[in-house]
Structure to design on (584 residues):
């Protein structure tokens, strides 16, 4: 939905205006995906005054991403799993907005949160005009979600090679496909959902190529058995693949994409236990697009900027350390959903609700706490099963770009590590510029860390999106 | 094979309009991003990189990767996957930083 500049010219609801400062709302929720949306409506239902800020134009985040009303989709739910859970929360959001309990600010990208006496100040860039928006709140709930983890391979910068989540996002919001014959590859349960929806929307999917072996779940049978809903979901995706005659190759990877102006074929190879390609197993699959991704990584820059403690989740990614009521280590800052470790929409909805109750000072019912524990255990089992094996770096040639923005090839990164003594992604960045471009290491960060021989460090980006210099110039001087 | 995203979700756009892309006229459906309009026309690359002039288009689809940068109505460095297409938009491919005219 296009918004005019005037929609965004007004500062946030708690900003000082000619009438003087109004009281800060009780809670600012950053992110209107499953966790943030559930949190906002739950908190408003408990009597809190809530501001919900979201970078997107419509609520739902990436999981419930859906076409703009102008696209006139009669059945947006056809591209979704569990749409009713979203529809009910969206209806609640609109009712709370109507009643003045929630101020919903779409197209607001929060770039930093700073302490402000007993409250917090949030700075956002609003709308296509990139207007400055500033507001205060007494508590903050970070529901900033995740983005896709990419592991580079030769040819991954060719047009037609797109993120698996990216293909899904473009389909859900724009009703478009990247090609007619789309190989889906990488690791994690998202691949099954992506393949299913691409095929349902008319693409041919020659294969789903999964680097992990589903046998990885066997060590976690109790976590599986305690989550019958998750097993049913997996069965739904599995049977959709069978129905559409899509091959699922486990313990295989796309190790190269081929083509000149765009992808024309991919090489698929069998992997050993450490994800090293097994010699002699490579074969080509013709295709005109490749949707690839290796699971999701929590998006943490606002939280780490505030000093929130992190933990290492089972898939090797950094996630926020949260207590049973979704508190971060910084008093007054809560978080829910993928930021606490990637676990899916059901868990995010539940955690949003738990966080909102905690912010409102309400006890968390035992049933909710139990469900959270079960789903978290499942998420950890899933993360462990799909954690990238160390041998994936064998896919790289010396001239394979690892950093897409700055076009830094693997050879230069290896040189920084082997010859120049870099032992972490930060030092590699200083020596090679890997991670220094537009995306600020979001695409290459996990890969660079692996090449430097470490687990990825938590996000450290002082600004979570590009901010016009004039906004920085207009900030009041910091105390002290 | 007649299945399409549209047959899956039903309905139809409230409006369609023309978007000009490097001199070509493309049909946009109300509510689509610029990247979606380009994909819909079978165009997957609309930028060249600063160092090697390599072709790039939408990759992450959610605004994280900045690979889909494009010039919209003369304004460079817009993320095509986030910017809604509007009637009369002129979209041009972007070379390098998009600031070539500034000589920086």
């Amino acid at each position: 939905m296009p918004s005019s500049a005037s929609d965004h010219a007004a500062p946030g609801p708690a900003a000082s205006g000619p009438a003087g400062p109004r009281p800060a709302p009780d809670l600012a929720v950053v992110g209107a995906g499953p966790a943030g949306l559930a949190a906002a409506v739950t908190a408003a239902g408990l009597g809190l005054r809530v501001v919900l800020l979201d970078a997107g134009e419509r609520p739902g985040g990436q999981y419930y991403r859906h076409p703009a009303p102008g696209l006139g989709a009669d059945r947006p739910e056809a591209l979704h799993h569990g749409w009713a859970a979203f529809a009910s929360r969206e209806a609640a959001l609109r009712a709370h907005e109507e009643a003045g309990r929630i101020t919903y600010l779409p197209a607001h990208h929060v770039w930093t949160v700073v302490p402000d006496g007993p409250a917090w100040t949030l700075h956002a860039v609003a709308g296509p005009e990139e207007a400055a928006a500033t507001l205060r709140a007494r508590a903050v709930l970070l529901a900033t979600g995740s983005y896709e983890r990419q592991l580079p391979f030769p040819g991954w910068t060719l047009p037609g090679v797109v993120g698996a989540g990216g293909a899904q996002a473009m389909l859900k919001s724009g009703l478009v496909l990247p090609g007619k014959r789309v190989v889906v590859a990488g690791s994690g349960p998202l691949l099954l959902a992506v393949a299913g929806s691409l095929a349902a929307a008319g693409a041919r999917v020659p294969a789903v190529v999964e680097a992990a072996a589903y046998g990885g779940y066997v060590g976690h049978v109790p976590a599986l058995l305690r989550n019958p809903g998750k097993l049913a979901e997996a069965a739904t995706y599995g049977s959709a693949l069978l129905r559409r005659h899509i091959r699922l190759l486990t313990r295989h990877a796309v190790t190269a994409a081929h083509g000149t102006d765009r992808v024309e074929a991919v090489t698929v190879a069998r992997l050993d236990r450490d994800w090293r390609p097994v010699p002699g197993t490579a074969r080509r699959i013709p295709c005109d697009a490749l949707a690839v991704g290796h699971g999701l990584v929590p998006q943490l820059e606002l939280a780490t900027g505030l000093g929130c403690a992190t933990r290492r989740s089972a898939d090797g990614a950094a996630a926020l350390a949260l207590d049973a009521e979704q508190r971060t280590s910084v008093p007054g800052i809560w978080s829910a959903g993928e930021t606490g470790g990637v676990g899916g929409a059901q868990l995010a909805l539940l955690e949003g609700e738990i966080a909102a109750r905690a912010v409102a000072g309400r006890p968390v019912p035992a049933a909710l706490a139990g469900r959270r524990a079960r789903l978290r255990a499942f998420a950890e089992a899933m993360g462990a099963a799909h954690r990238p094996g160390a041998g994936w770096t064998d896919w790289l040639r010396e001239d394979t770009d690892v950093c897409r923005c700055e076009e830094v090839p693997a050879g230069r990164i290896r040189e920084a590590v082997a010859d120049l003594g870099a032992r972490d992604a930060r030092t590699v960045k200083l020596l090679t510029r890997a991670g220094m471009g537009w995306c600020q290491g979001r695409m290459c960060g996990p890969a660079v860390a692996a090449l430097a021989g470490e687990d990825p460090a938590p996000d450290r980006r002082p600004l979570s999106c590009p901010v016009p210099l004039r906004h920085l110039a207009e900030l009041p001087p910091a105390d002290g | 094979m007649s299945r399409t995203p549209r047959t899956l979700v039903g309905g139809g756009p409230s409006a369609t309009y023309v978007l000009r892309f490097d001199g070509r006229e493309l049909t946009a459906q109300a509510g689509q991003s610029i990247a979606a309009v380009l994909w819909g026309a079978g165009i997957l690359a609309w930028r060249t990189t600063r160092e090697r002039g390599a072709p790039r288009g939408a990759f992450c689809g959610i605004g994280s990767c900045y690979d889909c940068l494009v010039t919209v109505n003369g304004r460079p460095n817009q993320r095509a996957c986030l910017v809604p297409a509007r009637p009369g938009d002129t979209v041009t491919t972007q070379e390098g930083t998009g600031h070539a005219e500034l000589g920086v």
Observations:
- The helical segments of chain B are 5-9, 34-40.
- The longest helix of chain B spans residues 34-40.
